[in-house]
UniProtKB/TrEMBL annotation, chain A:
Its EC number is 6.3.5.-. PANTHER family: GLUTAMYL-TRNA(GLN) AMIDOTRANSFERASE SUBUNIT C, MITOCHONDRIAL. HAMAP family: GatC (MF_00122). GO terms for molecular function: asparaginyl-tRNA synthase (glutamine-hydrolyzing) activity; ATP binding; glutaminyl-tRNA synthase (glutamine-hydrolyzing) activity. GO terms for biological process: glutaminyl-tRNAGln biosynthesis via transamidation; regulation of translational fidelity; translation. InterPro entries: Asp/Glu-ADT_sf_sub_c, GatC. This is Aspartyl/glutamyl-tRNA(Asn/Gln) amidotransferase subunit C. Allows the formation of correctly charged Asn-tRNA(Asn) or Gln-tRNA(Gln) through the transamidation of misacylated Asp-tRNA(Asn) or Glu-tRNA(Gln) in organisms which lack either or both of asparaginyl-tRNA or glutaminyl-tRNA synthetases. The reaction takes place in the presence of glutamine and ATP through an activated phospho-Asp-tRNA(Asn) or phospho-Glu-tRNA(Gln). The lineage of its organism: Bacteria, Candidatus Daviesiibacteriota. It comes from Candidatus Daviesbacteria bacterium RIFCSPHIGHO2_02_FULL_43_12. The keyword Ubl conjugation does not apply. Heterotrimer of A, B and C subunits. SUPFAM superfamilies: Glu-tRNAGln amidotransferase C subunit (SSF141000).
Amino acid sequence: MKLTLEQVKKVAKLAKLNLSESELAKYSEQLSKILSYIDQLNKVETSKIDPTYNVTGLSNAFSPDEIRPSLTQKAALFNAPQQDKGFFVTKGVFQEE
Amino acid sequence: MASGETKVMKYEPVIGLEVHIELNTKTKMFCRCNADYFGKEPNTSTCPVCLGLPGALPFINQQAIEDCIKIGLALNCSINEKSYFERKNYFYPDLAKGFQTSQLVLPIAIGGWIEVEDAQGKLTKIRINRAHQEEDTGKLTHRDGQTFIDYNRSSVPLVEVVTEPDFTDTFQIKDYAKKLQQIFRYLDVSNADMERGDMRLEANISVRPVGQTTLPNYRVELKNINSFRFMAQAVEYEIARQIEAHEKGEKLVQETRGWNEDKRVTYVQRSKEEAHDYRYFPEPDLPILKMSATLINEMTKAVDTAKEKDPVKVAEKLVSTGMSLASGASIARNPIKLAIFNEVQKEKSVLDMDWKDFGNFIANREINEENINLVPELTKKQLSDFQSRKSGLISNSKELEALAQEVIDENPGMVDIYKSGKTTVVMALVGGVMGKSGGKADPGKVKAILERLLG
């Protein structure tokens, strides 16, 4: 299974990774190898087997609609690299017009 | 514009709608944090689950699932026997997890319909593709090149209702939105207030030559528009813009546009060139949903009961008390007036009420109060106003006395006859007072006043 350079670039973009030309070449080869390995699963006959979404075998694991205590604002923001007046802060993410 | 000599190609819009409804459950979709984020200090209603902290495990809110089933049933959908959640992956800080928990392959409800009116009053069936359960995102504020995040809204239950591209004009869109809003309200699953963001409309619009039956190869998504009116304006603008582009032979592309209210134009928010690839896959942390026949029966009954609150049905019931069609429809649309009317109907002391008159009276009253808790007081006031109007001057005997004196002064002959002992002549004087009052006096009371004045 050989991934095209375009496919690798797309995966990198979706993962928000900026790759250099040499990295692209290197990862193309590695990703292709990984996929080829995983591809062995396609040889298994699965047409009569229900997909496994979940390994617990449970269904309808509901919880009643009753309020439980939340974290305090201080605790919620405890590990935030940047915060201001109770908000988490990141670099700007939106450009309009 | 068409000169009549050149052949002008006619175009028609193809429009589909996506509506997001925030449910009014007490807690969030996958954790038991308070879901009421309105007016709260930022990040005071969060926990490891809705903050997407490592190792946190989600728990499904049962009430939300039931609400979603009800929405599906009210829109004539079938409920999938088996349904499950999936991860919709994307990088954007409005959800800290890196994905939104949503549904793709097996949503809760599929294949429904609703009838909407066009400008001519003609009803058209709009097919509902699905109603699925998902979660809301945190609220982002963009300022000075930075983004400020409040996760109080993160993971509040959201239901998405998606139609097929069956709309052809904005009148149908407005009617659809209004009908959905009524449904959400009578089901009591959401406040469905657009300005507060409880209900959000997105329209997918493209334009094709009349006669073409296949869908165009592009569509423009209109997003982030928070009122019926602006949505209608944005859709009108977009239809005109796209027809013009077609006529000029320009190529239209897949993109997301918003509405600029000041300039009254749509503008590009996101071009689909940065192709979305959400890589949906089943959520391994949430067991599947199995909808038993018992549950669906129960929900169907709940929907049927709630439908009694449908304004159309309520109006029919009101009209059956004798009030006019217009009054019935007006009261049915006004929750406060409806509550007052129902309250009065419950009162035993007014059993001999003229419901026809009272209904028309309430329908025509100006009641601007919106606080439902004030209904008992409002009811007392309306009832006494109605009764005093109905019985005219009963509550104001001074005015009655003045009228009676007038009649006495104007009829000295009759007064003499009365004083000579022929007291039955008082009825003629009563008639005089009744005439002056425009029929709004109580004859018995008038008689008593006259007898007193005549000594």
